[in-house]
Amino acid sequence: MADRSAPSCHLRLEWVYGYRGHQCRNNLYYTAAKEIVYFVAGVGVVYSPREHRQKFYLGHQDDIISLALHPERVLVATGQVGKEPYICVWDSYTVQTVSVLKDVHTHGIACLAFDLDGQRLVSVGLDSKNTVCVWDWRKGKLLSMAPGHTDRIFDISWDLYQPNKLVSCGVKHIKFWSLCGNSLTPKRGVFGKTGDLQTILCLACARDEVTYSGALNGDIYVWKGINLVRTIQGAHAAGIFSMNACEEGFATGGRDGCVRLWDLNFKAITVIDLRETDQGYKGLSVRSVCWRGDHILVGTQDSEIFEIVVHERNKPFLIMQGHCEGELWALAVHPTKPLAMTGSDDRSVRIWSLIDHALIARCNMEEPIRCAAVSTDGIHLALGMKDGSFTVLRVRDMTEVVHIKDRKEAIHELKYSPDGNFLAVGSNDSSVDIYGVVQRYKKVGECIGSSSFITHMDWSSDSKYLQTNDGNGKRLFYRMPSGKEVTNKEELKGIQWASWTCVSGLEVNGIWPKYSDINDINSVDANFIGQVMVTADDYGIVKLFRYPCLRKGAKFKKYLGHSAHVTNVRWSHDHQWVVSIGGADHSVFQWKFVPDRKLKDSLHIAPQESLVDSNSDESDSDQSDVPELDSEIEQETQITYRRQVYKEDLPQLKEQCKEKRKSAASKRRERAPGNSIRLHFVHGYRGYDCRSNLFYTQTGEIVYHVAAVGVVYNRQQNTQRFYLGHDDDILCLAIHPLKDYVATGQVGRDSSIHIWDTETIKPLSVLKGYHQYGVCAVDFSADGKRLASVGIDDNHTIVLWDWKKGEKLSAVRGSKDKIFVVKINPYMPDKLITVGIKHMKFWRRAGGGLIGRKGCIGALGRTDTMMCAVYGWTEEMAFSGTSTGDVCIWRDVFLIKTVKAHDGPVFSMHALEKGFVTGGKDGVVALWDDTFERCLKTYAIKRAALAPGSKGLLLEDNPSIRAISLGHGHILVGTKNGEILEVDKSGPITLLVQGHMEGEVWGLATHPHLPICATVSDDKTLRIWDLSPSHCMLAVRKLKKGGRCCCFSPDGKALAVGLNDGSFLIVNADTLEDLVSFQHRKDVISEIRFSPGAGKYLAVASCDNFVDIYNVMSSKRVGICKGASSYITHMDWDVRGKLLQVNTGAKEQLFFEAPRGKKQTIPSLEVEKIGWASWTSVLGSCCEGIWPIIGEVTDVTASCLTSDSKVLATGDDFGFVKLFRYPAKGKFGKFKRYVAHSTHVTNVRWAYDDSLLVTVGGADTSLMLWTYEVEGHRDSRQCDSEESDLDSEEDGGYDSDVTRENEINYTIKALSTNIRPMFGIKPHLQQKEPTLDERQGVVRPPVSRALPQPEKLQTNNVGKKKRPIEDLILELVFGYRGKDCRNNVHYLNDGADVIYHTASVGILYNVATGSQSFYQEHNDDILCLTVNQHPKFTNIVATGQETQQICQLQLLLFTSGMQ
Question: CB count, 10 Å around CB of 1434?
Fold first, then answer.
């Protein structure tokens, strides 16, 4: 049975034994419903003492270490440890997440506290700075953060009587914080003479700025403001770990095992010594107290929770117990009763009742316990110890039967034989000893075959064989009871095993991931009857597999809760429960087993939602049962959007080239050209790797994207308008519900999303800072206020934005595999869905996080790759299209049915008022009714249906459909081939826009006397385009291979095309039919050129370093140009058709004579004199200036000169089109530059009359037309260019003052050298000349009437009765900072006062009296000042300083009337 699917039964957490008392404090409270909330391992527990019932919060994925209760006592905040720890705020009634706060802390969250009205939460991290953060937790928004202290902080609390004040305490400090704006400022508490400086463990705030705190020595320190005013000595005999304030007063708990109650003025009321009570014991230490009315909750270091009723305070009630600190490894279940036995390094063995959920017996042993077993009759309990001994106890009264020590190393496993006669004991000495039970445990055999420690053992049903596993992963068999090893495979074949707890063996192959260390699964237990088994591993996960499980990488269901290693797991005797134990969290979890048949009744129960999937996760296997990925989807998932260099890197790259700039700046350079170009029309639409990126706007125009351009196309006038705010490929587009705004996301190192208006083409908002590498999906909410986006980073991060404010609301890691679509629920903007590779997830917002649940497929199939999704007619309904052509219909998170919609993937789907429209790879558009019951109509995209007004030709029938949109009585369709079509409801199809398909476009040629051009691409097509206002594709021809170059003959009748296999064609320029073809080369033909005049010769350059010259008339090769050391990149003929200029990849500029191809050497001065028929070269002195400063990083790929030889247009690898004056002599010429292409501009050509510049962009597949605007003629509506890379002094230069100020470097004063040079040694560092007495070794007492000071005493000058130092008060400041600041003097109060600044002081000068008042909160030079002009905020001033954290500009707002 090689079924690799996950089992259909599952486990439900029923009870957790234990409480986290070690290394935590203040983590135990009463909720409003009188339930008790605490945590253990990674689980938040809500326990009802009345019903003896537990509820669990499972939103964490590692140890919880801090907990705070909201003032209304329903919501709970918990913080965890981990590399990227987060805080969850959850509801104690429903145990569902309300908010997630993340992305700020590292290592862990040590303390949490809500403020008085519960709106804000403060948290303290475990990082090296112990960062303190204040959150608006409902929004998941960080309000303020500051470094807390250099040492651990143990407690933090809001002052409940003063707003915006907090107190924190920890190792040798207490700090009083005030929150002002978004800045947290601390003041250290002054211990003075009143008490010793020491570690403060807990605190509580009272009225009138009084704070009570518990110290390490058992005293209580009372603070007023920031000063220590008195101590209550000996409140406890040792450290006070917990302090809890309530209406009646305060409760404190300490290491001495006492709980003390105090009234509101901290006068003692009573003391309860838990060590003296019935349940008490020596060494009991209190970690947490909570006092409510007449009940007190106490949590101890050893994982117990006591409840004390005040009037019976000597009879505390023990409501929870667990193992104490130390690893927990031993677990055994009783063979006939619902009991579990556990033993731990705390040396106790405990028996738990699985029905009553209670501890029924415990017994303390001499040694730490490592394993346990119960005999088959249930009478004896054997315990293996860490010192190599084992002990047998009677179960009924825990009295000892025998204690035997035959080994030196720990006993890790022991098991009774099924017939009850033998006990096998496996030790870390690599051997198993066999003892006879009836012979009072006499040793009767020994198994020695292992080379490593014994980890697991199982007996056969007839008690004749034993199998063992050891630390090397070896599986061995022994005959019993002698212990002889069995190697004969035949003998082993028929053995039936009584139990299966081994981790290696054929039956359990599937529990191992494909690539895994053999030691990370700690325990297995098989349930033969239910054919399932459960495993425990090092990652805190309990998994359920089918049994037997033969093939590696089987699927499973996984359950979280334990935080670190799960050391052991066992089924109860009747298979009703699974018991698992955690090593470091020393907790015992009891899981209820829910078999298949019960599952069917509980289908309406939604899966446990959490930040990490606690449900069946796909295991790491390649899924054998998943169909092949569709070729098109596979191709798309392999596209990488990473760039070697991003445009964001440009400024840094230029900085690195500073030296070059300096040398260039000295030379006089040409001005940039006066003429300019403006983007006029773009052929192309990005369909090959995008979807649903095509919409109608409000006014009936069409918006879509190609390359780095957002295009708004008017189909009546056949004109386009462009949004040019992006600087790299746009990958996604979404339209606002009102159809007037559009959001587009692009590729980039820190990629951005732009929201812009389709009417004005102006940006409204730009969002960046969260997505790396690119944004692949965006969606607006139905109210238009929110935007969801998905990145193409490794985790495919999902972010929810308030786009108008530019604020991130929530974020979460989406999936390891690609996500294609995100959709916000139109009825509930806090919910969204994402679909992608084997991925369908339903998310809901919780504060700063999103909580996801996988779609529940049930028995209907398996998770397919989903390509598109929409929401339906109610908030629960969602629909997704799969890669196999089905439409899945979801209610809430459950799949309710699937409908076959297309052959091949469903790429696009759109919801209408009364139905849906879908489009697929099969080239069919289908209209459906509102339940997907009936397909109402289909439209096939075929050439035959093309209407006469089409702007081009359909390349093939039934192209793959990637986008569909409806409006204005039409269906708009975008295809993979880069076409946009409009389908009329009655059937005819109009083609509106088209471009090349996927593949790079390099070949471009303009006709010598008509407004047409030709392009050829790696998509294996040759196309002719009309450049006149009709802007359409005139002809297309499919080629056998892709091509890289083309050229019209001088009379325009023939067109030569060079292909990638080394062949070239000459075709009729009108019909594109072959005239002639040749193949002399193997490598790509990179450039092809007719000679001018009659076009007698054709020069053909290839990537194998040769240029062949052909006689066109006789169709013969007449010459070969040799001598290039690299591939040929550019070629130009001279006017006479006798000389050929060639550029190569090695940046050589070579000259050859035609037709024979003889190499010539021509000096550069002569080159300028030669008349060239065309200039498309990029080398030579005439175009030296076109190479940018960062020429090593990027190449200039193409150039073209206007016919009047005035302006040279270039294209480069950064996607820039630039215009230079010609000749561009001297380095780093000035230019105008234009961004529209995304990465490489592969070719540029002027039209025959220079009215247009045509450019093609390699991988962005677009063809762009730019109108050429001569100086003086252009309309000034569009800022047409950015200026050149460097503007040196001669461009009008700077004024000397400006230059000086520009060069001021604001280094940090504290780090810079002294202002004036100093000599000698400062007095306090000078070595004193020894006196005579000192030389002679005489020690005299210091002359002082006071007692001699003891050694090492640090004196504190606070409170000494010396003459106090008078305070210095700033009275007058001379000076005003004018040397490098501007606009920093303002009138206030209608001219009565003047405000300005100098040094680090803000100065308010009263004109009438001449007096000054000062704002002195800054601690470094103020550099800027402004006054709020709004009548509502009179006299508010903001000043900014330079500071040690250069990045953090501190803006302090102060009111000038009241410093």
Answer: 14
Q: What is the pLDDT of residues 100-129, one digit of tens each?
A: 988 889 889 999 999 988 899 999 999 888
Count CB neighbours of 1207 within 10 A: 24
Q: Which residues contact 705 (CB under 8 A, 6 or more apart)?
A: 685, 686, 690, 693, 711, 730, 733, 744
pLDDT above 80 (res 786): yes
What's the pTM? 0.78
Type of residue found at 745: G
- Tell me the DSSP string of 1031-1056: --EEEEEE-SS-EEEEEE-TTSSEEE
Residue 1200 · residue 1188 · CB < 8 Å: no
Q: How far apart are CA 1226 and CA 1080, in angstroms?
A: 40
How far is the C-alpha of 1079 from the C-alpha of 90, rounded, in Å? Answer: 73
Which two tokens mark 788? 């969801």
pLDDT of residue 1273: 55
Q: Is the C-alpha dihedral spanning 1012, 1016, 1017, 1023 positive or negative?
A: positive
Mean pLDDT calculated for residue range 249-256: 91
> What is the b/e burial string over 1248-1277, where b = at least 16 CB atoms within 10 angstroms of the residue's CB?
bebebbbbbbbbbbbbbbbebbeeeebeee
Q: Which residues of 853-870 are buried (b: 16+ CB within 10 A; e: fewer)?
A: bbbbbeeeeebbbbbbbb
Check: CB of residue 391 under 8 Å from CB of residue 380: no
User: 1201 with 1168: CB under 8 angstroms?
Assistant: no
- pLDDT higher than 60, residue 649: yes
d(CA 135, CA 143): 5
Answer yes or no: are the C-beta atoms of 256 and 218 closer than 8 Å: yes
425: β partners? 414, 433
- CA-to-CA distance for 965 and 967, rounded, in angstroms? 7
**CB of 240 within 8 A of CB of 252?**
yes
Query: In degrees, to the nearest 5, what angle opens at C-alpha 460 toward C-alphas 459 and 463?
Result: 80
* Total H helices, total E strands in the chain: 8, 109
Look at the block and give the residue holding tokens 């450019």: 1255
Q: Which of 1037, 971, 1035, 1043 minimizes the C-alpha distance to 1003? A: 1043
Judge contact between 736 and 759, C-beta under 8 A. no
**Distance of alpha carbon 599 from alpha carbon 613, whole angstroms:** 19
Structure token digits, residue 1240: 């490489």
Residue 925 tokens, joined: 């558009």
Separation of alpha carbons 447 and 363, rounded Å: 31
Residue 91 above 90 pLDDT? yes
Upper half-sphere CA count for residue 719 (Cβ side, 13 Å): 3
How far apart, in whole angstroms, are the C-alpha atoms of residue 1335 and residue 316?
A: 70
Burial class (CB in 10 A: 0-12, 13-18, 19+), 930: middle
DSSP sequence for 589-626: EEEEEE-HHHHHHTTTSPPPPBSS--SPPP-SS--TTS
Q: Read out DSSP for 235-297?
A: SSSS-EEEEEE-SS-EEEEETTSEEEEE-TT--EEEEEEGGGSTT--TT--EEEEEEETTEEE
Distances, alpha carbon 664 to alpha carbons 650, 1212, 1290, 1298, in Å: 18, 21, 11, 22
- pLDDT, tens only, 556-585: 888 888 877 899 999 999 999 999 998 888
Q: Are 826 and 871 in contact (CB under 8 A)?
A: yes
Six-digit token string for 227: 């000063």
User: How many Å apart are CA 1092 and CA 1098, to the nearest integer?
Assistant: 10
Among 165, 78, 159, 92, residue whose Cα is nearest residue 123: 78
| Distance of alpha carbon 759 from alpha carbon 697, whole angstroms | 9
Residue 1397's closest CA among 1380, 1372, 1371, 1377?
1377
Q: What residues contact residue 329 under an 8 Å CB cut-off, 6+ apart?
A: 343, 344, 345, 369, 370, 371, 412, 567, 568, 581, 583
